[in-house]
Amino acid sequence: QVQLVESGGGLVQPGGSLRLSCAASGSTFDAYTMGWYRQVLGKSRELVAIITVGSATVYADSVQGRFTISKDNAWKTVWLQMNDLKSDDTAVYYCKLVTRDSIYWGQGTQVTVSS
Questions:
Q1: 70: burial class by Cβ within 10 Å (0-12, 13-18, 19+)?
Q2: In 40-108, where do the E strands start and end?
Q3: What's the pLDDT score for residue 101?
Q4: Nearest-CA neighbor of 48 among 67, 65, 70?
Q5: CA distance 14 to 26
Q6: How far apart are CA 50 and CA 43, in angstroms?
Q7: How many angstroms separate the Cα of 27 from the Cα of each of 31, 67, 68, 84, 90?
Q8: pLDDT for 9-53, tens place per residue?
Q9: Mean pLDDT of the chain
Q10: First CA to last CA distance, the chain
Q11: Residue 63: phi, psi to the nearest 5?
């Protein structure tokens, strides 16, 4: 089993920055992708950014140029640097790991962008 724990969420003013972290622990795994998704109450969970085993990245159009996803070489930690935050970025942010054998989700961390 693999556990994912997100951290770094909080309250920030529009235009501000936050850095989310996702720490993976437990069994060893062969990762395919790790990524960040977000969900607003009453809406579907949506992709924010993913990073592949080859370090290729994919971003949602709404965050392109503002958010940056990165990881360490051991796939133990994935970060999401969020700059120029907007009120529309308010959501619970979830970390997702896709391995050869399974899919894992973290418990989520709340990001609130408000003045």
A1: middle
A2: 46-52, 57-59, 67-71, 77-82, 91-99, 103-105
A3: 87
A4: 67
A5: 36
A6: 20
A7: 12, 29, 27, 36, 32
A8: 999 999 999 999 999 988 777 888 999 999 999 999 999 999 998
A9: 94
A10: 40
A11: -115, -5
CB–CB of 48/93 below 8 Å? yes
Alpha-carbon gap, residue 34 to 99, rounded angstroms: 9
d(CA 42, CA 53) in angstroms, rounded, equals: 32
Q: Which two tokens stand for residue 28?
A: 């060893």
Answer whether 93's CB lies under 8 Å from 4's CB: no
pLDDT digits (tens, 9 = 90+) for 51-95: 998 889 999 999 999 999 999 888 889 999 999 999 999 999 999
Angle in degrees, CA 33, 51, 77, rounded to 5: 80
β-bridge partners, 115: none
